[in-house]
């Protein structure tokens, strides 16, 4: 009799156990894939933050100036000199910013949130009444004291990344001098929450471990983009499946490995628009297109928006071939930008610039380019300079390997911003 009572009590207790709602609702393979691609965008920013603080000993609210011409970056932009910072503010603490007067060259103080979304740019285009001087970077709604004479600028989140750019132009020394006049000054000691734990190792793609701490990852930074609520609700359901046991975890792992990552890799190539062999243009504000945001964070994190910068990419070109690109005299590269343009070659595997005897990694408006008799401009891309083309117009490519071209436009005109312009095709010479 006692055994019967104990059994009945055990069954009653089991009946009272509440299974999480997420686990009660079946999750389809497509939902696992969607949740994975969405969450990966945030995880990649957290990985970059972790690397910056652990490998490069970064500190909050301290500005770091990079040397010009750094070629060890992935797909580097060699037209500008960079300054970087991780900024932290809270409900009572702002950060002071000083930008020197800069005229006659491109510059911007570019800030992004924890999902890789452009939050703001400070320059003469976005703040024409206050393009330089003193600023106070504050959390929106913060009750914080702002120094006299400083323009308060509200940020959407407690942390942000800064990638300031100053055009090198004809006088790189002056660009470097101006870069070092940009300053960040903490106006107190903000409370900084530790980032959620990560398990990245190697490349950009995680397995089921992406969901081990998914709720904390979502809570660490609000996604302010529209239409993200269904995905934010979906992520905890996949997290619950991973935590449900070995079978659930194995299923999520298999879906990620066999479906989510391969499909995303194929989609990543096709995201955006392709015309005349060029993909683009890049964007730094993504709206509800979380796949494009994650794709950008995989291959070129910290992209700016189209009002500041546009880039086009031609992928998988043959390093043993000779390619030419010709701009008509009434559609020259400089005609489509307010500031400057460039084209850079990188290898198609590591996205690094290509070593060559000339030490030439890009062509741009500072290059001593020679124009054709009719006023058009022909650029040539080859591992060795082909006959019949001026050396000044030649950009070396890797023999025996594939390469990509990146065409950058700073201050693109409206036609480019609206996606109505693409560079001329890159044609293989027979």
TrEMBL record:
Span of the signal peptide: 1-23
Keyword field contains Signal: yes
Keyword Signal set for record: yes
Keyword set, alphabetical order: Signal
The protein, known as: DUF1254 domain-containing protein
Domain DUF1254: from-to ranges: 61-186
Highest classification ranks of the organism: Bacteria, Pseudomonadati, Pseudomonadota, Betaproteobacteria, Burkholderiales
InterPro entries (UniProt xref): DUF1214, DUF1214_C_sf, DUF1254, DUF1254_sf
Domain DUF1214: residue ranges: 316-412
């Amino acid at each position: 009799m006692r055994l019967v009572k104990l059994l009945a009590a055990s069954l009653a207790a089991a009946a009272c156990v509440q299974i999480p709602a997420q686990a009660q609702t079946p999750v389809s393979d497509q939902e696992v894939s969607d949740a994975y691609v969405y969450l990966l965008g945030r995880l990649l920013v957290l990985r970059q933050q972790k690397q910056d603080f652990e490998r490069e000993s970064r500190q909050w609210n301290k500005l770091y100036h990079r040397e010009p011409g750094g070629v060890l970056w992935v797909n580097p932009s060699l037209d500008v000199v960079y300054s970087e910072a991780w900024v932290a503010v809270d409900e009572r603490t702002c950060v002071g910013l000083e930008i020197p007067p800069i005229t006659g060259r491109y510059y911007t103080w570019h800030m992004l949130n924890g999902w890789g979304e452009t939050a703001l740019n400070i320059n003469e285009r976005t703040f024409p009444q206050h393009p330089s001087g003193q600023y106070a970077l504050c959390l929106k709604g913060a009750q914080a004291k702002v120094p006299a004479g400083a323009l308060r600028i509200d940020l959407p989140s407690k942390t942000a990344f800064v990638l300031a750019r100053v055009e090198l132009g004809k006088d790189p020394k002056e660009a470097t001098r101006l870069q070092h006049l940009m300053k960040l000054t903490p106006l107190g000691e903000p409370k900084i929450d530790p980032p959620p734990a990560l398990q990245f190792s190697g490349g950009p793609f995680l397995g089921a471990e992406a969901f081990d701490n998914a709720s904390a990852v979502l809570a660490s930074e609000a996604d302010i983009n529209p239409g993200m609520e269904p995905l934010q609700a979906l992520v905890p359901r996949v997290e619950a499946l991973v935590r449900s046991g070995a079978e659930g975890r194995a299923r999520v792992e298999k879906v990620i490995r066999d479906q989510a990552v391969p499909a995303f890799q194929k989609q990543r190539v096709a995201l955006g628009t392709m015309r005349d062999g060029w993909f683009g243009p890049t964007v730094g504000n993504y709206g509800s297109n979380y796949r494009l945001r994650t794709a950008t964070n995989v291959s070129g994190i910290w992209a700016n928006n189209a009002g500041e910068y546009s880039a086009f990419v031609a992928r998988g070109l043959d390093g043993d071939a000779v390619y030419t690109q010709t701009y008509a005299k009434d559609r020259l590269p400089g005609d489509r930008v307010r500031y400057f343009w460039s084209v850079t070659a990188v290898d198609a595997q590591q996205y690094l610039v290509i070593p060559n005897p000339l030490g030439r990694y890009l062509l741009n408006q500072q290059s001593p380019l020679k124009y054709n008799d009719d006023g058009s401009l022909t650029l040539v891309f080859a591992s060795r300079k082909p006959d019949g083309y001026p050396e000044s117009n030649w950009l070396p490519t890797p023999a025996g390997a594939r390469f990509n071209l990146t065409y950058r436009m700073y201050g693109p005109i409206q036609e480019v911003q609206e996606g109505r312009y693409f560079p001329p095709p890159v044609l293989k010479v027979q």
